[in-house]
Amino acid sequence: MSAYDRRDLGLLLLRLGAGGVLAAHGTQKLFGWFGGHGIEGTGQFMESVGYKPGKASATAAGLAEAGGGTLLALGLATPAAGAAAAGGMAGAATVHAPNGFFNQEGGYEYAATLALAATGLAIAGPGRLSLDHALGHVFDRGWMVPTALGATAAVTALVVGARNRRLDRAEKEEQAGLFDEQEALFGE
C-alpha cells in the first residue's frame, strides 16, 4: 500500500471545504437549515430574480448544491458532482453579475469561486482519499468528465437563457406600461 501524497491531502481538503460549503447552502434551500428559507422562501426568491417556476428552481438549485457538495466532499461520482455544483453556481453567478465582481457589493465572486472549485475537482479527480478511489473509480471514468461538464453547460445555458429572456420581456413590458401612463397623463 502506497502512502498518500500532498496531492491527495490537498484534494481531500479542497473537496471537504468546497463540498461542505455547497452542501450547507443546498440544505438552506431545501430544508431551511442554517438560517435558510427552505423551498417555499427560496422559491419566492427564485421567482423574484426570474427563475420560474420558483419552487422547482429552488429544488433544482438545492439538489445541485446539497447533492453535488455532499458527493464532492465524499469524493464519489466526482465528475457529475462537480458539474452539478458548477451548474448551480453558474446560475447563482448570473443573478449576482449586475452587482459586479466583489461579494461585498453583492457580486458574483463567491458563486464563481465555488463553481471554479467544483469544476476543478471534476477535472482533476478526487484523489486517493475518496470513495471513488475505494470503489475502483466506477463513477469516475475519464469519459464522464467531458460528458458531465458538457451536459451541465448545455442545461445551464438553457435555464439561464430562459431566465434572461423572461427578464428582458418583463423590462420591455414595464417600459411600455410607463410610456402608456405618460401618454395618458400628458395627453400625447
From TrEMBL:
The keyword Ligase does not apply. GO terms for cellular component: plasma membrane. It is a multi-pass membrane protein. InterPro entries: DoxX (IPR032808), DoxX-like_oxidoreductase (IPR051907). The chain crosses the membrane at residues 71-95, 107-123, 143-162. It is found in: Cell membrane. It holds the Pfam family DoxX. Keywords: Cell membrane, Membrane, Transmembrane, Transmembrane helix. Belongs to the DoxX family. This is RpiR family transcriptional regulator.
